[in-house]
């Protein structure tokens, strides 16, 4: 039997990303974080959450020699 994917609620996504639940809901509703609607509630597969986080990591420019050490910030596309 194939193991079922881990599905997160919008509140769990908000807790994981440490953002307000309304922000997490907007990200899912706008498709920035891919999810599925089960009845009236959204569920987000773990793979979609990881893709979203990875997209934020890839968007960070590489540090050049003019950059200050320790000033690297990761920004997710909110």
From TrEMBL:
List, for all copies, the residue spans of the domain called Helix-turn-helix. Answer: 7-55
* Pfam assignment, any one: HTH_17
Organism domain of life: Bacteria
- InterPro entries recorded: HTH_17, SinI_DNA-bd
Can you provide one Gene Ontology molecular function annotated for this UniProt record?
DNA binding
NCBIfam families from the xrefs? excise
Protein name, please? DNA binding domain protein, excisionase family
Which species does the entry assign this protein to?
A: Maridesulfovibrio salexigens (strain ATCC 14822 / DSM 2638 / NCIMB 8403 / VKM B-1763) (Desulfovibrio salexigens)
Q: Tell me the organism's taxonomic lineage.
A: Bacteria, Pseudomonadati, Thermodesulfobacteriota, Desulfovibrionia, Desulfovibrionales
